[in-house]
Amino acid sequence: MHYISTRGNCNPVRSAQAINTGMVPQGGLFVPEFIPKIDINSINGSYQEIAYTVLRSLLTDYTDSEINDCIAHAYNSTTFDSDQIVDITGIGNNRFLMELYHGPTAAFKDMALQIMPYFLTYAKKKSGNSLHTVILVATSGDTGKAALEGFKNIDGISVIVFYPNGGVSEIQRLQMDTTDGLNTHVVSVRGNFDDCQTGVKEIFSDLELRELISKNDIEFSSANSINWGRLSPQIVYYFYTYSILVKSGSIKSGEAIDFCVPTGNFGNILAGYYAKEMSLPIRKLICASNKNNVLTDFFSTGTYNRKRDFHKTISPSMDILISSNLERFLFEISGHDAKAVTEWYHNLGSTGSFSVSNSVKKTMDSIISAGWVDETDVLDTINKTYKDHATIIDTHTAVGVAVADRLRTDSTPVVIASTASPYKFSCDVLNGMSEAVNADEFAAIESLSKLSGKKIHRAVDGLRSRQVRHNKVIDINEMKECVKSIIAGSIRR
Q1: Could you report the per-residue pLDDT of 161-192, keeping only the tens digit for each?
Q2: Catalytic residue among 109, 124, 201, 276
Q3: Which residues contact 450 (CB under 8 A, 6 or more apart)?
Q4: Is 312 designated active site?
C-alpha cells in the first residue's frame, strides 16, 4: 500500500513516511492509493483484535509485531477506563451512543492519539530517521490535550500546541495549560481555531523554515487529523461498534445502519466514510453541525463558503469554518481528481469559496446527510436525553442526537458518536438538565457526579489544583516566530 497526495504534487510514499511527514509539504493530504476491503464476518473479536485487522490492511509496511505492539501500548486498562475501550449505550428507538471518551483526556481524540506516538516512533526507526521531530498541533479544544498526553516525554519528539484564546472551555484550557512533561509547549493565540489551523499549515508549507530547521537535525510533523496516523485508528471504532451491535442482537450481520457524527474538521466522519468503503454496512453518514454550519450548507448546495460569521458556541470543539479533512473526501468521491481538488482549494484560499460539479454533488448526496442545530436545541436535547433515558450527554454529543432525530425518516438503527465526557462541559450540561445554573465548572462537575452516580472522570478530577505551566499568549502573525523561538530555546540536539 502506498499513499498519494490529494493534489498530485508528490511521489507515492509508504504509510510510515506519510505518518512521519504529517501532511504533504507542498500542500495536500496523504490518502491510500486504494481502499482495502474487509470481510465483516471476520470482525467479531475484542477492540484490540479488530484494531489489528483494520490497521493491518492500511499500514502494510508495518510488521504484524509492530502493529500489535502499538495496539497493546495504546488500548489497555491503564490508558482507558473501560475494558471494552468503547462503550455502546442505547437511548431508545434504535438509537445508540458510541462512547469515545473513556481515554485519559475524556475526548474521542484519545482513540487515535494514544496509538499515534507509537506509529511515529516505529516510522522513524524503520526509515533510520534520527531527526528530532516537532509535532505542531492546532486545536479547538480536545486534540491539543490528547496530543500532549500521547507524546509527553517521548524521546526524540517535542509537541507544540496552539489553541484559540477564549475559544475553548475553561476545563479544556486548564487541561492544556497544566500539562507537564519536558517536551510539551502550549501557546494561546488571539484568534479562532481556523486561524490556528491556517497558521500551522503555513508553517508546514514554509520550505525555507523546514530547510532551516533541518540544518539542526529537526523536522516537523502533525498530530491533527491531517496526519494519516491520526485518522486511520479512528476507522477502527466504526467496525467495533457494528460488531457489538451484532453480538447484542440489536442488528443482524450485514444489516445497514446509519452513523451520525458531530464534526467540525470532518475527520471523525471521514473515518466513517473509509469504514463504509472498506465494506462496513453503513447506509448513511449524517454530518451534524452547530451554528457554525458551513458543512451543512456545503452538502445542501455544493458550494463551500467560509466567508461567514464565526460563532462561539457551547460546543466549542466544533467551532470551525475550514474543515481540513473534507479535502480527502472530495478527492475520493471525485475519482482521485487531483486537478479538481487543487483548483477547489486554490479558490478557497484566494476567494473564500468553491463549488463542486453536479456529478460530485450527486455522489455526496448518496453518502452524506447533513443538518445543524442551535444552542436551544442542544440544551433541550441534553434535557430530554437525561429525563427519558437517565443518560447524561455533553454538548457535542447533543448536537449529534438532535440532528439524527431531526433528519431521521424511518426506524433504521442509528449510532451517534459521543465525542466527549459531559464533565468537560459541565456548566452547559447542567444548564441543559434544568438544574441550577452554575458558572463554576468545578462545582458543576460535582453536581453532575451526584446526579449520575458516576465517578468524576480522571481527566478533570483535581484539575483546578494542578499547577499552570504554560501561559504564553501571542497574535496570529507571531506563530512562526514562536515556533522558531521554542526550537531555539528548548530543543537541544
Answers
A1: 999 999 999 999 999 999 999 999 999 999 99
A2: 109
A3: none
A4: no
